[in-house]
Design brief:
The chain is an alpha+beta fold. It contains 5 helices and 17 strands. The chain has a 17-stranded mixed β-sheet that branches. The model has no long low-confidence stretch (mean pLDDT 81).
């Protein structure tokens, strides 16, 4: 009679290895989950990501809080970009972007919404011609010369909506170290809405803002004050390769207050009318009025390739009044008297 002995230890060893593999896989998944939450946390973004970005661009970039969902949304609060000087170059209480990361990785820049709430931009030019933009635009290493670019598929963009609300853009030109002489151009309550930016598809742009100009140059320049309101509506259709676009629309500037070198423009205004295709400027007219009286206009038309920046344009200056000419010559102390300008030009 044959005796058979069964070894029960082999299955147990097999099950033990499976158990270990399960623990290793579970630990790896847990590690990935922890890494995901750490990498997308506000603390990690502020202490690791922003310092590296700041070093790369030559500015100190900070936020008070960051909410990050890598696949769909990023929200930054109290954004500040500091370069030189005492005032930040850029501040914004909130910057928010909603997008599809999977589409972007697939080559389609799909962004559902970008929102910038009440940002402020301060541009300062010092007496030595340096500015607080220099750290961002200068000192970057030169890129090696590249060979001929290989034909590539046009970038696919699908930006559903961009909203810039209640923004302020301020440019200050300082003439002396005492700050006694300075020019200030300030755009406040700037609201811009872009509805649709997509290859070959129509979109719409609306803009509105208050404008203030206060010039206080050194002698022989003349002080000037100008307050106005800007509004505009444009429709556009970019080409499939985004190299050009058809643009149709209008903009209006109304002057509510003027003094000094700009005194002649009190109660005046300017209108821009445009109808442009990728190959032709059908109509581009800038006209000036004051209290119902026409002060002149500039007209441009003709074939023009927006992609190549080549064309042949007819440029007509029609009855430009002394009030506009004096505006251009005010800083140099030039008075054009009763001059009226008319000209027709062929520009190639």
């Amino acid at each position: 009679m044959t005796n058979t002995t069964l070894d029960a230890s082999a299955p147990r060893k097999g099950r033990g290895w499976l158990r270990k593999l399960a623990w290793i896989a579970g630990g790896f998944i847990l590690l990935l989950v922890v890494a995901y939450f750490v990498a997308t946390s506000s603390a990690f973004f502020k202490s690791v990501i922003l310092p590296r970005v700041s070093k790369a661009v030559g500015a100190d970039i900070t936020v008070s809080e960051a909410s990050i969902s890598p696949f769909s949304q990023v929200t930054l609060r109290d954004l500040k970009v500091q370069t030189t000087g005492t005032e930040p170059l850029i501040t914004a209480p909130e910057v928010r972007a909603s997008y599809s990361l999977m589409d972007i990785l697939g080559g389609n820049m799909r962004v559902d919404e970008v929102v910038l709430s009440s940002p402020t931009v301060n541009l300062v030019e010092n007496p030595d011609k340096s500015s607080n933009l220099d750290p961002l635009t200068k000192g970057q290493p030169a890129k090696p010369a590249a060979g001929p670019a290989k034909p590539s598929k046009p970038l696919q963009i699908d930006l559903r909506k961009l909203t810039l609300s209640d923004a302020t853009v301020r440019k200050v030109k300082i003439y002396s170290q005492t700050n006694a002489c300075r020019d200030v151009i300030e755009v406040t309550h700037l609201n811009v809405t872009l509805d649709g930016l997509k290859n070959g598809q129509p979109g719409k742009l609306t803009v509105g803002a208050d404008i203030k100009v206060e010039n206080n140059p050194p002698s022989p320049g003349t002080n000037g004050l100008l307050h106005g309101k800007l509004s505009g509506n444009f429709g556009f259709t970019p080409t499939a390769d985004l190299k050009a676009a058809s643009i149709t629309g209008s903009a209006r500037l109304d002057v509510s207050r003027a003094g000094g070198a700009f005194a002649d423009l009190a109660g005046g205004g300017a209108d821009l009318q445009c109808e442009v295709s990728p190959t032709d400027i059908k109509q581009l007219v800038l006209s000036f009025q004051r209290s119902g009286t026409r002060l002149g206009e500039v007209r441009v038309s003709g074939p023009f390739d927006l992609g190549k920046i080549e064309g042949r344009l007819a440029v007509a200056i029609v009855s430009i009044d002394r009030q506009l000419l004096n505006l251009a010559g005010a800083k140099q102390g030039i008075d054009f008297g009763g001059t009226v300008m008319n000209s027709t030009n062929d520009v190639r």
